[in-house]
Design goal:
By secondary structure, the chain is an all-alpha fold. The protein contains nine helices and no strands.
Amino acid sequence: SSTVTYNAAISACEKGNEWEKALHLYSNMSQCMVESTTVTFSAAISACGRVSEWQQAFELLHAMSSGKVEIDTVVVTSAMGAACARSDAWEQALQLFSVMAQRKMEPDASVLNSAISACDKGGEWEKALQLFSVAMQREAECTVFTFGAVISACEKGCEWEKA
């Protein structure tokens, strides 16, 4: 089908760090009335995330949520990865974390680590601790990276006692 062909092409663009071409193909799908799927969005968001184009990744996520395409953990992880690469995107990372909670999605360790890391990079140690606290209450999977990101955030906030 045309969707499968477009998805393969967008995935190839993702792997080749050609995010602009991936977005062009995605846009072309809409113009040609070809249905976008979770795979389509995941590949396009990941392509944007690989080159820290978090605004584009979040625009795609918004388009996905306003359509009839289901948002899954893989898509959220890709968008979160794009956000955590930038220090000015911690608010978007927290929004994404909230979207997961609203949709009753359990964040995996990768999403949790990315959200805490985004707060760390943004100098938001209190937010990082809040996320960690929520994760502990939910008995979410934490890794050595989770603890490292929380410790780093507290260190940057000169709150090493809290770590």
